[in-house]
């Protein structure tokens, strides 16, 4: 299995993503696959709005070896198939977003929902009634929230594709999620909205995931040879 210590912590904009974490809704400890800065264009200016990270089960890293061992970080970065294996894998995942600037919950959730709906439609499985109920529930989670720098939103994607949502303030992650999005397609859509190649919300995180996983494969091969 992948070793927890093979994946180090990442510091971005003074926020440190630990090398591993066990979010309240997960049954396993997850390792830090990659992270990056989320940038937004507001009134013609590009600003750093948040930092975001992806955590995966150890067995997810190991399962990727079968098809992707020996590939370079550039090959992984450019591969839709590689990231689709991550999106669709039957293992737990965590998307951890920490804000760098203040945001209303309404703005935060609507910006994410727009990307999720686009990914859903592009995937060809969008259903108005089904999706509307899920997106409405998601928007309602944040409608009364005012998020400040340092607040974090954690999306734990369970092995069946459903998503639990937590909001962490003052570094404290609540033991129970504030909501569960039970639609089994929504976890895939969260992942795709964040990591899709051409217009994902955090392209730096996609690059980081490709680099770190390729690096892990290389270290693994080197240790086997030696």
Automatic annotation (TrEMBL):
GO annotation terms (biological process): flavonoid biosynthetic process
GO molecular function: chalcone isomerase activity
Pathway(s) of this molecule: Secondary metabolite biosynthesis; flavonoid biosynthesis
Keyword Acetylation attributed: no
Location of the Chalcone isomerase domain: 13-214
Keywords: Flavonoid biosynthesis, Isomerase
Recorded family membership: Belongs to the chalcone isomerase family.
Protein name: Chalcone-flavonone isomerase family protein
Organism: Chrysanthemum morifolium (Florist's daisy)
């Amino acid at each position: 299995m992948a070793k927890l210590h093979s994946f180090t912590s990442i510091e971005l904009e003074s926020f440190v993503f630990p090398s591993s974490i066990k979010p309240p809704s997960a049954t396993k400890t997850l390792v830090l696959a990659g992270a990056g800065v989320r940038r937004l264009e507001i009134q013609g200016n590009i600003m750093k709005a948040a930092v975001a990270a992806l955590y995966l089960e150890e067995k997810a890293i190991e399962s990727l070896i079968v098809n992707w061992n020996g590939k370079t970080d550039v090959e992984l970065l450019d591969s839709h198939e590689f990231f689709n294996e991550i999106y669709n894998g039957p293992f737990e995942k965590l998307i951890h977003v920490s804000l760098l600037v203040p945001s209303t919950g309404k703005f935060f959730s609507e910006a994410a929902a727009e990307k999720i709906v686009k990914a859903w439609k592009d995937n060809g499985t969008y259903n108005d009634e089904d999706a509307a109920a899920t997106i409405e529930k998601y928007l309602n989670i944040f409608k009364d929230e005012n998020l400040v720098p340092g607040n974090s939103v954690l999306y734990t994607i369970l092995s069946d594709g459903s998503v639990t949502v937590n909001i962490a303030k003052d570094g404290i992650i609540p033991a129970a999620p504030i909501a569960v999005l039970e639609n089994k397609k929504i976890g895939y859509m969260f992942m795709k909205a964040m990591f899709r190649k051409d217009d994902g919300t955090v392209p730096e995180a996609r690059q980081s995931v490709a680099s770190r996983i390729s690096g892990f494969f290389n270290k693994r091969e080197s240790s086997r040879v030696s």
